[in-house]
């Protein structure tokens, strides 16, 4: 009985390509908000942060690639796997620079302090692994 219910439900909601599109749109659009904020307020604070770690400040401009270019590529499905990798790498660098002091921290409601960063990072990796699906400019 449970198998029949599960099989019927699975047939009804089997939309892997639609799921991939929804995944791409969700992560791509949400990351674009971060990129938009960088276009409005600049990356000078990132330059300062990088230089305080002994890294060249020009690396800060990579945030525009990771938060605007890669998300647009993910949204339209152009070189999606590569864009997913760039997206994840951007989150890894951002977390290493800003969030590592919170690695072992829980919020007041019991959430991991780096929960959002982890979600974006693994979302980028998942997009890289599953690919764009059929609703994309470039299928693989």
Total beta strand runs: 0
Instruction: Indicate the proportion of strand residues.
Output: under 5%
Largest sheet features: none
Structural class comes to: mainly alpha
**Net shape:** globular
Task: Describe this entry's structure for a reader.
The protein has helices at 2-13, 16-41, 44-52, 62-76, 80-99, 115-130. It is mostly helical. It is globular and about 60 Å long. The model has no long low-confidence stretch (mean pLDDT 94).
Brief description of this entry?
The chain has 140 residues and is mainly α. Helix content is 70%, strand content 0%. It has helices at 2-13, 16-41, 44-52, 62-76, 80-99, 115-130.
Task: Map the helices and strands.
Blueprint: H1 2-13, H2 16-41, H3 44-52, H4 62-76, H5 80-99, H6 115-130
């Amino acid at each position: 009985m449970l198998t029949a219910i599960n099989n019927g439900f699975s047939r009804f909601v089997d939309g892997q390509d639609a799921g991939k599109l929804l995944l791409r749109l969700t992560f791509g659009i949400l990351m674009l908000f971060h990129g938009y904020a960088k276009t409005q307020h600049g990356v000078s604070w990132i330059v300062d942060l990088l230089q305080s770690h002994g890294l060249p400040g020009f690396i800060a401009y990579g945030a525009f690639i990771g938060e605007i270019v890669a998300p647009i590529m993910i949204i339209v499905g152009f070189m999606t796997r590569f864009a997913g990798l760039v997206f994840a790498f951007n989150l890894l660098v951002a977390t290493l620079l800003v969030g590592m002091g919170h690695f072992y921290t829980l919020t007041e409601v019991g959430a991991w302090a780096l929960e959002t960063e982890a979600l974006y990072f693994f979302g980028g990796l998942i997009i890289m692994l599953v690919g764009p699906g059929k609703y994309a400019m470039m299928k693989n």
